[in-house]
Structures are given as structure tokens and as C-alpha cells.
TrEMBL record:
<feature type="domain" description="Peptidase S8/S53">
    <location>
        <begin position="57"/>
        <end position="306"/>
    </location>
</feature>
<feature type="transmembrane region" description="Helical">
    <location>
        <begin position="352"/>
        <end position="374"/>
    </location>
</feature>
<dbReference type="InterPro" id="IPR023834">
    <property type="entry name" value="T7SS_pept_S8A_mycosin"/>
</dbReference>
<dbReference type="InterPro" id="IPR022398">
    <property type="entry name" value="Peptidase_S8_His-AS"/>
</dbReference>
<feature type="active site" description="Charge relay system">
    <location>
        <position position="66"/>
    </location>
</feature>
<dbReference type="GO" id="GO:0005886">
    <property type="term" value="C:plasma membrane"/>
</dbReference>
<feature type="active site" description="Charge relay system">
    <location>
        <position position="99"/>
    </location>
</feature>
<dbReference type="InterPro" id="IPR023828">
    <property type="entry name" value="Peptidase_S8_Ser-AS"/>
</dbReference>
<dbReference type="InterPro" id="IPR000209">
    <property type="entry name" value="Peptidase_S8/S53_dom"/>
</dbReference>
<feature type="signal peptide">
    <location>
        <begin position="1"/>
        <end position="28"/>
    </location>
</feature>
<dbReference type="InterPro" id="IPR050131">
    <property type="entry name" value="Peptidase_S8_subtilisin-like"/>
</dbReference>
<dbReference type="GO" id="GO:0004252">
    <property type="term" value="F:serine-type endopeptidase activity"/>
</dbReference>
<feature type="active site" description="Charge relay system">
    <location>
        <position position="258"/>
    </location>
</feature>
<dbReference type="Pfam" id="PF00082">
    <property type="entry name" value="Peptidase_S8"/>
</dbReference>
<comment type="similarity">
    <text>Belongs to the peptidase S8 family.</text>
</comment>
<dbReference type="InterPro" id="IPR036852">
    <property type="entry name" value="Peptidase_S8/S53_dom_sf"/>
</dbReference>
<dbReference type="InterPro" id="IPR015500">
    <property type="entry name" value="Peptidase_S8_subtilisin-rel"/>
</dbReference>
């Protein structure tokens, strides 16, 4: 799994990733007081001020499965819960790289002291530190998703990629959907992938692409039939883990679907706060049904159902649905089912051996038995 951008402050790189997207530091020198929010072009594009008159995400817990979150950042003060780190067994409130802090800022930065403003500033962030970018970590990331579900998350943001779609990940997604959680994931970037990757390619997950300030799809976003919606993801100003040796500061992300996904996670938090009884399938459907169509008419492989419309999602009359419009992952075969399949195969093989013995004698039986043993040995590897 890999992160969607590399955070860089000054000339020192922190946490290189294969995607090669570099977030440049926003100068902390003499700038106008309101300049940070002035530079957050997506606030006007998404009509965030109007949306906040309807909902600010209060009472909604958004889990960020990422590199951890720097809870001491001033713009996240009081917004980061005690979480977990499935790799270090910590509380998730420190950030190994800065990526998780940037993602969390897009979702829930307070906007106080003229700082950055998040899509859902009154939501609470549940940090889930995970081995994003590491290899050989087995089921730790799916474990983090399950932990988030069990600890109150109503929305989970996943701004990471995995070329493999594992059974553990599908089961974690299925578990979350069964527990009424909205799952949001970045679709992936073309410098690493040619198609939508896991977990965004798993049925039921809101797979998010990115567009620029003119509404044009970002050239670095992968395309595919799993794309569900697009959100701002180019030249996004968000939080830095630290700057100039001090906690805090801001970074400008030139482009990445990793920055677009938390826009949609924040939108889901706004909807869940405004309509607290609404189930996850209806939250997802509301975001999709109110998206502004772009590209070819209807759903397409670049914009999905269209560009995110915060105000529309909070105000439109949208009929209820009976199921997740993005589907649900099929259950993984259970151990019992696998054992039953093996038993049936063994029974068939025994019948063949008995028949062979009756027709051709012990010599053929021995040959068949040897072949069976080889087959079983290969299957066990």
C-alpha cells in the first residue's frame, strides 16, 4: 500500500512514496490573515459556507485510516479522538509522515485563527494508524478498518492503495457496510496504476476521483467503471504535520485523488449530521444522486456520477433506497465451505480409485494413487 502524496517542507523530504506527488510548504511569513482559506479554492467551489449553515458534521465520527494524525496541530485542536495504531499499538495521535494529518485537515480543520477550514469542521477524527506504504503487513489494514467500525466510526476515509484486492480487505469492507458505515476511498493515480485499485474497487465503496478548480478531471487520476464521484483534488491547501521544526503549518498538494477522497468523507459527515437517522446506503445514494453530471451523460469512468455538490446533498429530495447503490462485496468462502469442498473432492477420488481397482487391478490403482498424492501435495502448497 502507498500514500497518495509525499509531504515536503523546504528542501527536506519526509516519507518518500512511489507516487511522486510532492506537497510544497505554504509560506508562514508575512501573509494576509485570511490567506489560508483564500487559498482553499474548493471552499467556494463547493459552497462550503452555505453548506455549513445547514450542517457542520457535529456528532459524526470520521475514521482516517492512514499514517496517524498529528493531534497537536492547532487547526485540529479538540477534534482528534484517541484512536489506535495497528502497527505500533499506539493511540494514532502522532503522524509518521504527515499524510494522515493532511487528510484529516481536509475533513475537519476548524478554521479558527484564520487557519484552514475543513468540509465538516465539527466532526471528530478517529485516527487509525496503519502500515500504509509498507510491505508484508498481512491483514493489519483490514484490522484497522474493523477497529474503526467497532469504535464508533460512521464514515471511514481510505486515501491509500493496494494493487491486491485481498479477501481480508473485502471482508473488512463487508463488515463495515453491515454495520452502517460509509466507506470512502481514493481511486488511485496514474503514476502507479492503470485501473482503480483496492479498496476503491471493492463493491460498496465510494471510489473518488479528482478534478481541478475549473472542474476538469485531473490528468493524474485513473479511470474505470468503479469511479463513483469526483471532488476537488488539485492545488489543495491543507495541514502539515510540522513546519520549521514546530507542530503545525500548511502544505499545498499539487494533485492527488488522496486529497479528493476526504472531501467526500467530509460531505458524508455533513449528511449524517443533518439526517442522523439516515442509513449508509441512503447517504451514499444522496451524494451520488445530487452530484453534478460531467463528462459523458450519466455515469462515466472519469467523473463517476459527477462532481460533488455539498449543498445539493444537504437539501435535495432524494427517494430512499433499499440497498447500497454501489453494491456489496460477496462473502468470502468460509473455512467450513472450503472443508466441505475438499471432502467432496476426496469422496469423488475414492470412487475413482475403487472403480480403477475393480477394472484394472493393483497396478493402475497404484498409478492413480500416486497421481492423487501429487495433486494433493500441490494443492497444499
Amino acid at each position: 500500500m502507498n500514500r497518495w502524496w509525499t509531504v515536503r517542507r523546504g528542501s527536506a523530504a519526509a516519507g518518500a512514496v512511489a507516487l511522486g506527488l510532492v506537497a510544497g510548504a505554504v509560506p508562514a511569513g508575512p501573509v494576509r490573515a485570511a490567506s489560508i482559506q483564500d487559498r482553499q479554492w474548493h471552499l467556494d467551489y463547493l459552497r462550503v459556507a452555505q453548506a455549513h449553515r445547514l450542517s457542520t458534521g457535529k456528532g459524526v465520527v470520521v475514521a482516517v485510516v492512514d499514517t496517524g494524525v498529528e493531534a497537536r496541530h492547532p487547526d485540529l485542536a479538540g477534534r482528534v479522538l484517541d484512536g489506535t495504531d495497528v502497527l505500533t499499538h499506539g493511540d494514532g495521535r502522532t503522524d509518521r509522515n504527515g499524510h494522515g494529518t493532511g487528510v484529516s485537515g481536509i475533513i475537519a480543520a476548524s478554521g479558527g485563527r484564520n487557519g484552514a477550514l475543513g468540509i465538516a469542521p465539527d466532526a471528530r477524527i478517529l485516527p487509525v494508524g496503519a502500515p500504509i506504504g509498507a510491505q508484508g503487513t498481512g491483514g493489519l489494514v483490514p484490522e484497522g478498518i474493523r477497529w474503526a467500525v467497532d469504535h464508533g466510526a460512521r464514515v471511514i476515509n481510505m486515501s491509500f492503495r493496494d494493487k491486491r484486492t485481498t479477501g481480508d480487505m473485502r471482508e473488512a469492507v463487508r463488515y463495515a457496510l453491515q454495520h452502517d458505515v460509509v466507506l470512502v476511498a481514493a481511486v488511485g493515480n496514474t503514476d502507479q496504476d492503470t485501473a482503480v485499485v483496492s479498496p476503491a474497487n471493492i463493491p460498496g465503496v465510494l471510489a473518488v476521483s479528482a478534478f481541478d478548480r475549473k472542474g476538469r478531471i485531473w490528468s493524474g487520476a485513473v479511470h474505470g467503471p468503479q469511479v463513483a464521484i469526483a471532488a476537488p483534488g488539485v492545488d489543495i491547501v491543507t495541514l502539515a504535520r510540522d513546519q520549521g521544526g514546530k507542530v503545525g503549518g500548511y502544505v499545498d498538494v499539487p494533485g492527488g485523488t488522496s486529497a479528493a477522497a476526504p472531501m467526500v468523507a467530509g460531505a458524508a459527515a455533513l449528511v449524517r449530521a443533518r439526517y442522523p437517522e439516515m442509513k449508509a446506503p441512503d447517504v451514499i445514494n444522496r451524494l451520488l444522486a445530487t452530484a453534478t453530471d460531467a463528462g459523458p451523460a450519466g455515469r462515466d469512468e472519469q467523473y463517476g456520477f459527477g462532481r460533488l455538490d455539498l449543498v445539493g446533498a444537504l437539501t435535495a429530495k432524494v427517494p430512499a433506497v433499499t440497498a447500497n447503490p454501489l453494491g456489496n462485496p460477496a462473502p468470502e468462502p468460509s473455512a467450513e465451505a472450503a472443508a466441505d469442498t475438499g471432502s467432496a473432492a476426496d469422496r469423488w477420488l475414492r470412487k475413482v480409485l475403487v472403480a480403477a481397482s475393480a477394472v484394472a487391478g493393483a497396478g493402475v490403482l497404484a498409478g492413480l494413487l500416486g497421481a492423487v498424492l501429487v495433486r494433493r501435495s500441490r494443492r497444499a502448497r
